[in-house]
Amino acid sequence: MRPQIVLFGDSITEQSFRAGGWGAGLADNYSRKADVLNRGYGGYNTRWALYLLHHIFSLGLEKPPIAATIFFGANDAALQGRTGERQHVPLQEYKENLKKIVQHLKDCSPTMLVVLITPPPIDEDGRMEYALSLYGEKAMKEPERTNEVAGVYANCCIELAKELGVPSINLWSKMQETEGWQKKYLSDGLHLTVEGNCFVHKEITRVFDKAGLSAAELPFDFPHHSEIDEKNPEKAFQIQCS
User: Contact 168/211 with Cβ under 8 angstroms?
Assistant: First the structure.
């Protein structure tokens, strides 16, 4: 069975298998080498994600995933008293929930590469424009998320990664290093454009490569066609599959 890489997160992960998505890019990278599984759940926060852990990452598997990305926080950081308040998770609980997720994955496999990814920055004007396009006069009068608060959650995620000794990607910080990031990387002030997806794909690939999980270094599951002798095809499969 091929190794598995699990992408666990909210809508930004769920949408990652769309055309040009960062998850689709990873699946292409690891084609014939590892199965990339999308376990993204739109609207979820870390509190609700805990209920999924034992279903997605079962203990006692003979071959647990070799790697997992944990990409939550955009919904946890929704503001109280605004339209997204039902998704809000207090900062300390967010940190504790992430810690429980990481610890569970390490219980599944101490060697599993676990990568924490922060929420992206928030383009507040973009969120308002998007709401107006959907709801017109009934649209929210204030953004349900702010970039400042998203940054607080992002820093908390990075802090936890350091405490647990796992790699992390600070999207909130890195994306804002690019001029015009608001429209370049975000389609509606929160979710990713094609360029945003490319950015995430590049960052994850960098972390995987550094951890020794470069797609180029992993073996194919079955022989390349050039290794198959048309007169004696069995030989190639005996060598690879024995």
Answer: no
